[in-house]
Amino acid sequence: MFFSTTTSLLPILTLLLAPPTTAHFTLDWPTARGFDDAQATSFPCGGFNNVKTPRTDFPLSGGPLQLNMHHPRTRVAVYLALGNDPGSSFNYVLLPQLTQTGLGDFCLGHVNLPSGVNVTAGTNATIQVVTNGDPDGGLYQCADVTFTNAALSESHCNNNTNVKVVTENMQGNPNASASGTGTTSGSPSPSPSNAAAHVTAAGWLLGAVGAAGMALL
């Protein structure tokens, strides 16, 4: 039986020539509401507008955010909304904008509540992570949490070996890198020493941050 070479190779060529698909970033801990790369640009939570239960317990004393980055250079900021179903009211800045480089696991280390925020054990809230990894706008992911007095029972803070935070001056030129990058395995409990992003925000932050975090871009 004779087979056409062109016909038999067509499925293989189609697969090889298909454009690769990859997420811009994922929020791995606390547990995200969900992820859909096609909707990641949808404010406020990447197309997932319903609260996810059960919520993740998050320490009142602070804890990590575990991300996985799929762009070589990304600006990241983190916001907080209080309430059982806060919608788009992300009125508190947990981490001002910073610039991260490298691919893979990236731990935003010991993230603390802003001073003066009236939060107690049992308070429900939603954490929003925003990045600028899309040319058409921001990328959004959210995690629904309940604040607790309990400490974390396991580590949720890993950094790939090539991941770091860079500080920039007002012209956007890198002038330093953050310490604390590590491997993706064997990380101890979250602390500033093993958190790549536990740094003070640099002077290039883009103005005042609005309630929706739109000043990130």
From TrEMBL:
Record domain Copper acquisition factor BIM1-like: where: 23-161
Localization (cell): Cell membrane
Gene Ontology cellular-component annotations: plasma membrane; side of membrane
Keyword annotations: Cell membrane, Glycoprotein, GPI-anchor, Lipoprotein, Membrane, Signal
Record InterPro entries: BIM1-like, BIM1-like_dom
Region described as Disordered: 170-195
Membrane topology: Lipid-anchor; GPI-anchor
Signal peptide from the UniProt entry: 1-23
Entry superkingdom: Eukaryota
Chief subcellular location: membrane
TM segment ranges: none
PANTHER family: COPPER ACQUISITION FACTOR BIM1-LIKE DOMAIN-CONTAINING PROTEIN, HYPHAL ANASTAMOSIS-7 PROTEIN
Name of this chain's protein: Copper acquisition factor BIM1-like domain-containing protein
Protein source organism: Periconia macrospinosa
Species lineage: Eukaryota, Fungi, Dikarya, Ascomycota, Pezizomycotina
